[in-house]
Task: structure prediction
Amino acid sequence: MRDHVKRGLRQVYQPPTPRKKQEFLAQFTQPELSTTQFLFTQAAYLRPWSWLLSVGIFVAAVFITQNLEPWDVWIVSALLPFAALTTVTELSRSARYHMEELEMSARFSLKSLLMARMTLLGLGNLVLLAVLLPMVVVWSELPVAVTGCVLLCPYCLTSVVCLMLSRRFRGSEVVFVCAGVAATVSWGCFWWRESPRILLESTNVAGWAGITLILLALMLWEGRRYVCDREEWIWN
Result:
């Protein structure tokens, strides 16, 4: 219903074509800023606890691989939904504090700001996964493909659901709902730990890869929709 109303409003309201827009903008000189410099400026807006949580996940994974059995690989996977939670909560911080319209009036579009922050947080999580993967492979003695899928599936599933919720609901309460989603996915990993061992055998690599690719595609799709939905207002 909400999307139908938005499409109807776009059809009814046609903004006038701007005149001499480029000439007007040319009056203002702005210092050049490279992509790297822009990313560094946005890194300062990310709260330190999101990076500290990634360090905590790594330390917990090291403890697990040193003290538990290889069959407990799902316990490591149960940590990753909280890495996805920190990413979504950081992206939705502007909406929670009702600062979106102020950020849309800044030099850079809100879409650019969100993309920069999503890139930084995504790279941080990618580094975390890249460090965990060889460590868990050696410990669990599972195929690399299966291990990668086991680590990625909970992360992607949490990201998909939390992005969907953050896109539809913009109140501060959505953080608690997303935290519940992450906790539920994490609990599901503990439950999956009791499932038959055949589910992790190498003969199921194709199935695991298919599920992971679907969740990864949905995560990218929801991320794109999340960013695009934040720039629906014409005055931006």
About this structure: The longest helix spans residues 110-140. The chain has a mean pLDDT of 79. The chain is about 70% helix and 0% strand.
